Amino acid sequence: MIIGIETTCDETAISLLEPPLNVLHQQLYSQNEVHKEKNGVIPEIAARLHLTHLLPIFHQSLQAVKLSVVDIDAIAVARGPGLIGSLLVGMSFAKTLALTLEKPLVCVNHVEAHIYAALMSHGKNKIEESIGVVLSGGHTFFCLIHSIGEYTYLGETLDDAIGEAFDKVAIMLGLSYPGGSLIEQLALEGDEKRFSFKGGQINPYNVSFSGLKTAVLYKIRDLESNSPLSSQDRADIAASFQRSACNVICGTLHKICSNYNLKSIVFGGGVTANTYLKHLLVKEFGNRFQIYFPHAELATDNAVMIAGLGALQLEREGPSSIDSRADPILRLIS
Fold first, then answer.
1. In terms of pTM, does the model score above 0.85?
2. Structural element, H or E, at residue 12
């Protein structure tokens, strides 16, 4: 039995898994309600909440499946990338378990785990040559997947991640944090062609969302200079922004697909839960590629993907060093 520990940002999560894919239990404490007051994650508060909730969630998880700590065979933990304070809490907890129980420690890359989550969702623990795409609040990343553990870097965001852009535009429109699902809901009532916002596609495969976010801000200010935003204005801005942001991803993928003769695309990260984006991706690529999306519960930060990837990594590479350190800027490909 592998225990997975996820504390990279503001989700405190524990999972128990029998390799390769049998999830015995998963439990998560979300800090959204706490950080909503400040319209974003406060790193110090996030770390302290992990410290408060991690041990109780651990005990509750074991009790839920009527097991004890001695039944744990290995401990998998995300060591980065993420918020350093949050990572330190998870890493310290995982190391303590490993040392106390004399069990192997496996430190995994959070971004790689998002890719693996999509495969787990489809009952797979391996993949042939594919394109990998991670879209979340902290990451917008493109790579070639040769196999799990072997990747070639293609590109990433040069500023805001796509999920971060959604959150910031939501605040501009008077919505709350986190804003991704709220933007999507508001956009259903809007005209996506009313405003011609442009996102950044930068050669070869890098992207940018800061200019798009700024364009939305200026448009809001322009409209408000004449009169307060109407409900229709807000819906049209949300729809136009969403369309532009999603087109950045599709445009980048079209460039990648024109240069690489592959058969599948693997998506990970919370933004893949966006229905508009999923429909657009299936429309643009579904007739040529096998597309893997994570299930909703495995799209956002979770411990199942940490345990799953940790089990595979332990089988292939053995345990990590107990001296492994949390790394807030850990790269998938060095």
1. yes
2. strand 11-18
